[in-house]
Amino acid sequence: QSVLTQPPSASGAPGQRVTISCSGSSSNIGSNNVNWYQQVPGTAPKLLIYTNDQRPSGIPDRFSASKSGTSASLAISGLQSEDEADYYCAAWDDSLNGFVFGLGTNVAIL
Amino acid sequence: EVQLVESGGTVVQPGGSLRLSCAASGFKFESYSMEWVRQVPGKTLEWVSLISWGGLTTYYAGSVEGRFTISRDNSRNSLYLHMRSLTSEDTAIYYCTKAARQLSLRAAADSWGQGTLVTVSS
Fold it and tell me: Is B10 helix (H, G, I), strand (E, B) or coil?
């Protein structure tokens, strides 16, 4: 069981919007930044969002994220076939003195 | 261009030891903290360990504390993970990652290697 809770799956038709939630606690999301990673099957993870809502260069603005209290969310708008992947949230945990990841959410394009 | 190339993954017997290496290039290695993250194929990501840019500060996941040692050689732009007392639960792809910000311990990982597979099996 992961410290950060994500739904196992999400789906949407091309062009639609999908939202993925990530629930934590006061020791991780509640007091530290949240990062999001995208992993296409068979490849290494890629940083999608850092410091709660910042996109690295090269990440399209279709991807957005927010944090409130002990929860965070990632939104993908204008879904495209290339967005089919696993998405992980992560945050530093002050109690564990290390990073924790969610179990991941598999996004499928209908 | 940032490049992280892991090596050292292989099949090892339970109770055995192994050292993973990560060769870094394309950035000022001595200014960034580095981490190891592992993933059982088909499963979630698990953070393993972090080392500060100068090597003085290290953190470990509870599952590897006391068995794994992270180290770095800034003169060789290299990161290492020394693993001992390995069990089947350590079987995973091990990724080397770089922090997104200089001189920061808790930054996101903005670059990942391709991973190296460690299989613990008799």
Answer: coil
> Would you tell me how many other CB atoms lie within 10 Å of the CB of residue B76?
12
CB A58 within 8 A of CB A50: no
Residue A80 to chain B, least CA–CA distance (Å) = 23
Which of A86-100 are b and which e, b meaning 16 or more Cβ less than 10 Å from the residue's Cβ? bbbbbbbbeeeebbb
Tokens 């953070």, located at residue? B47
Whether A104 sits inside 8 A of B44 (CB atoms) is yes
Q: What is the pLDDT of residues B20-63, one digit of tens each?
A: 999 999 999 999 999 999 999 989 999 999 999 999 999 999 99
Question: CA-CA distance, B92 to B96, in Å (whole number)?
Answer: 13
Which 3 state secondary structure label does DSSP give B72? strand
Across the interface, which of B35, B44, B113 has its CB nearest the CB of A44?
B113
